Amino acid sequence: MTTFANSLLRIEQLEISCQHDGKWRPIVQDVSFQVFPGEIVALTGPSGCGKSLTAHAIVGLLEAGSRVTNGQVFYQDRDILTYNIHDWQQLRREEIALLIQHSLNGLNPIRTVRKQMVETVSQRKQSTSKKELDMYLCSLLQQVGFTDPESVLASYPFQLSGGMRQRVLLAMMVSLQPKILIADEPTTALDVINRERVLSLLKKLQHDFGLAVLLISHDQQSVKRLADRVIQMDRGAIIR
Ligand SMILES: Nc1ncnc2c1ncn2[C@@H]1O[C@H](COP(=O)(O)OP(=O)(O)OP(=O)(O)O)[C@@H](O)[C@H]1O
Ligand SMILES: [Mg+2]
To answer: Is the pLDDT of residue 3 over 60?
Structure first.
């Protein structure tokens, strides 16, 4: 991992400021790190240190009241902080997938898994027959460990456990074939068994597709088990 030029993602002296009581002040400061193709890098640190802000900045999804005030983010040597809305959308559709924190609420409660998966899959795949599409959806669900994909497709989110919903979201992300997945606390809300399942799945995706993962987690056990490399943040900066 010594070649500097081949990194997939390179963050340089990133500074993100947030607005509090009408004043902007830096929350994330001088954060620099790289992610190389196919590796799992953990970004860890105490609550509030700026991990989610960093993740959102990378994919152009900072909320109102927060913005990048210094530094650069390169994806395959392209300076993506200069991107417009269209470029960001394409980047998120084709290159970098973000599994947001609290993503268990990320599925629409009143639509079946099939409907929601079709919507995501059609961003990437040309229209095919219904039968072909169903086979494809089933194969995606099988890849994330479901043995009865038909019944999952027909389900509404509330009929699935938290771990199952997280795996459905991961299946949707797999269909976008990203080069890098940023998973923001993907296991925090899960029980031990589902935590293990999701972690094993991330490892499998790395192995099968050469997927790079930026795993944001304060669960030290998960981090130790999974990460090839650990980046430690504290109060907005990298400490090691
Ligand atoms: N849109 C915003 N406007 C103002 N302040 C914000 C905004 N988003 C985040 N912050 C502040 O920035 C700090 C860092 O938030 P962030 O969500 O990145 O932390 P985190 O490291 O992901 O924490 P956790 O481990 O709890 O998820 C917090 O103190 C938060 O209050
Ligand atoms: Mg967070």
So the answer is: no
